[in-house]
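Lecture 7, part 2: worked example. A protein chain together with zinc ion.
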Amino acid sequence: MQPTCPPSAVTGLNLGVRPRNMTTHQLDLLENALDSLAEALAKFEEGDAGESKAYKFAVLHMAHFIELVFKHHIAQKHPLLIYKDPFAQKVDKNKTITLWEAVNFINNEAADTVSAEFRTDLEWLKRLRNEIEHHKFTMDVPQVRITMGRLFRSVLEFLENYSDVEIESHIPDRTMETFKVLSDEYEFRRRDAIREAEEVEEANTSHHYTGEEEPPARLDCPNCDNPTLVINEDSDTGYRCTFCGNEESDELPAGCDICGVQTTLGELVFWENEAGQTEGRCYYCSGKYHAEKDD
Ligand SMILES: [Zn+2]
Ligand SMILES: [Zn+2]
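Predicted complex, written out as structure tokens:
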């Protein structure tokens, strides 16, 4: 009879499944790196779908991916360089260099290959990983998302400039969309803005019938063409785009200053009244209706 796997072995993290003392050679490093990346993307996607706890695993897998990809880069210089003491009489293959030693090596070869900003993000990742491993982790979802995106793009840029490792063709189809979003800053920010707008809409929509018509919480932004123009108390127009910051649209709700009918800004005609104030008048109150009827 086959021994059955405990459920934790099936559903748990893939980290550490491979024996630590396994002889590491170049191909293993890259393959393991790509496995970790696929896991990181899948978990990031789960996080995006509302399972915020999944970001925790996305962070762990991403950290693993970055560490392995740097080690792979070093191993390509010489396979022995990934061991702590390649000059020992007998190399201890259980002791490999750390991520920071890998980063130092890369920067010693050519200064600032790993930029100060990139290092700061790596420090953040390291701290977060420690916190997660010691269960001291408090999730700041927007920060985790933004920093992970930035880190991932830094790694891709590094690989593009300094190695022949090509990542994209190894990304499984099921996580390709997440890969694209994470690797494209514009698309990444756009997704976050849409998410934020959805949250504002959700918070400003009453879920029971009030009998009164409410102003729309979310509109299309005419400036950036995203569904991200939402109610905002700090805005003079009462609305602000979560993506581009635009506050204006002809579709904003507005009332006629004469008869009070509710319509949209684009439907009103504006002019100055005798007191020098700007007035918005509807089709009927502006006199246009009568003018056109008399034609
Ligand atoms: Zn906009
Ligand atoms: Zn009117």
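The pocket of zinc ion (ligand 2) is lined by residues 256, 258-259, 261, 281-282, 284-285 (CB under 6 Å). Confidence is low (pLDDT under 50) at residues 1-24. Keep this in mind for problem set question 3.
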